[in-house]
Amino acid sequence: MHTAGKVFLGLGGAVAVFGIVMMIMGGSAIGDSFDVENDNAFEGTSGQFYTDGSEDFVIYIKDDIDCTSVTVTITNDDTGEDHFVADEDCNKAAEEDPVGFRSIGLLDWNYDRPGNYTVTASEKIYLVSLWDELGGLAGGFFQALSGAGMIACGACFLLLGGILALVLNDPKEATQMQTPPTEGYSKD
Q1: Cα–Cα distance, 47 to 40 (Å, whole number)
Q2: Reported pTM
Q3: Does residue 144 sit in helix, strand or coil?
Q4: Which helix (H) or strand (E) holds 119?
Q5: Alpha carbon of 115 to those of 44, 60, 111: distances in Å?
Q6: pLDDT tens across 84-101, in order?
């Protein structure tokens, strides 16, 4: 097998394996992009939280709670306006909801007023930044996509290495033939 073929086969195998690992890790990151209980801006039934107005928030409850009985108000301390917008059908099982939680609404998209907000809820709620949630999903998706690209690149290297291994031959040492001097031959 030619040296170039060996190099391309080895490189292709390594790149393909690394791509598979990246794709698996990216797929795993999509499912575990954020943790509602640890990655929230607010958690509880009452209290305050501050926002600079640049983030959008999704409100979650545990999925074993009857969402139709939950009442929530999220009031801007400066204006007194309630900015909680409830889902029209909170009982629908949303595929994008994290395991163990259910989305019941969001902080009004037009709230964009920085400041303190007072939260009052009949059940424990979790305010999670939508952009943190989507960022985790996007990061996992692009990592998985990169892994798929690396697998394709590795496959190309493997194909090229296989072709080179079949077509090219190792150079053989030049064979020298020595002939005995012939009698009767003179230069003159």
Answers
A1: 14
A2: 0.54
A3: helix
A4: strand 115-129
A5: 19, 21, 10
A6: 887 777 767 666 677 788
DSSP assignment, residue 92? S
State the pairing for strand pair 101-107/115-129: unpaired
Q: Which residues of the chain have pLDDT under 50?
A: none
142-152 residue pLDDT tens: 666 777 787 88
Where do we find the tokens 């090219």? 168
Measured distance CA(126)–CA(41) in Å, rounded = 8
Going by the DSSP 8-state scheme, the letter that residue 82 receives in this structure is B
Digit-coded pLDDT (tens) for 122-158: 999 888 887 555 555 555 666 667 777 878 887 787 7
Report the C-alpha gap between 19 and 13 in whole angstroms. Answer: 10
Q: What is the DSSP string of 25-63?
A: HHHHHHHTS--TTTS-SEEEEEEEEEE-S---EEEEEET
